[in-house]
Amino acid sequence: MTAPACYMRFVSTQRATGLAKAKRTLKWQRDPEGMRLRILEAAKQEFSAHGLAGARVDRIAANAGANKRMLYYHVGNKDELYLAVLEGAYDKIRSEERGLDLEHLDPPEAIRRLIEFTWNYFLRNPEFLSLLQTENLARAKHLKRSTKVKSMHSPFVEMIGTVVRRGVSSGDFKVAVDPVQLYISIAGLCFFYLSNSATLSVIFGRDLLAKDAKDERLDHMVGLVLAALTGQSAALLAMTKAPKSRAAVAQTV
Amino acid sequence: MTAPACYMRFVSTQRATGLAKAKRTLKWQRDPEGMRLRILEAAKQEFSAHGLAGARVDRIAANAGANKRMLYYHVGNKDELYLAVLEGAYDKIRSEERGLDLEHLDPPEAIRRLIEFTWNYFLRNPEFLSLLQTENLARAKHLKRSTKVKSMHSPFVEMIGTVVRRGVSSGDFKVAVDPVQLYISIAGLCFFYLSNSATLSVIFGRDLLAKDAKDERLDHMVGLVLAALTGQSAALLAMTKAPKSRAAVAQTV
DNA sequence: AGAGAAATTAACCCGTTGGATAAATACTGT
DNA sequence: ACAGTATTTATCCAACGGGTTAATTTCTCT
Question: ipTM, 2 decimals?
């Protein structure tokens, strides 16, 4: 938005004949796939930064280094553009979720990894959070029309179900909690803290996105969920404040 | 929006003199306080339904039964109107929060009440959720300018601190969890489920706002938090799925 | 080479929207 | 009763913003 950053690939064509003139004209080059990608990327940024109504088609075009007409040519009108971005966002997270292997981990560790993944994914993809907020503000009006997203089931629910069952039979976990509820809880613990960090930071008068604050939050969430599942004070210990020195958690994927 | 619902109080003035004409003209009546309230209420609905950019000043005026000029006269431009609504929303929840008395309850019950209050408040005030989402989408740009909201500290953090301390010394709780973290977790568990119910309902292919689903969710949240704090399987039991028959939780305030 | 198709640019259209100006009407105190 | 002020109505407008139309340029295939 700030700098119109022209991504368009220009080529300087120097007429072989008529050299004397040195008439160096800047022309454009075809690149339909690239153009489409740049449009979708710019649209993602725009929609996540300004919401659906606040997004400006002209800005998307400018940031994509394209002419406005290109949006309609390659994707469609504003709504279709928005839906394409949303579908892309779901596609991406689902794909990364599938890459998470919890099979070989013991149940508590598996749950920890699950939380860490969710947390880090949200941290790495703030636009995803914004897009979800925007779509929920619209009461999922667009998502309902998307057969594509509806068919993209998260593997997490099943993964959690398996882990919980293993945990119960191994004695690690005390109770077979509903996987859907646990999934929503884990997502919620991460999501709310990050998506509402702006207002919460103002309310509490401190920066919730500072490194220490984030580390502390992750420890708290893992501790809370594991303590609930295992009933062990071992997990609870991580919840006491001032963990400070905890090493940064590497990206899981 | 649908019906312009003219809230304006009209009075039929019948000229005492000149009776023959029966010139019954509809005139308006002054009501600055009422007008301001109607404007703010209409604005709250509009902003929560459409977000800041999506909100239409004309619709607010129409739904307030007012002339558009009135908005600027009584409150200010769109941004000031929005901030006024936001401040009102915070004011309302803070006020209700203060009404919650946890002193006389034993710690686990106090935590339960806290969660129930939060849950029910969000259920009763969906606009509050929307407004927060909208403000966070704007990265709290407006909230930062509001000295009013900054001074409205939630009593919950301190209340939680007290309850947790009591719980630890009474032996009910195993660990002195950070009150701020716990506050955010409780809010997050409730908030995310409700604010994202639209997309989640599509993803899971079921209505998360159905009565049974909501009851189940509340049980899960209370169970999760209490199990973590107490380490008791008693609390965990409530987390097993299919509680179904649980009586509806009455509004706490 | 060169014709037809694909991709891109440039310019325009027109309803919407936040906001402003000015005039009218209802109160209030004296 | 009336003058002055507070409140409300009636219009207007300039900028914006999504979308369209038409012309231009590049690529591909024969």
Answer: 0.88
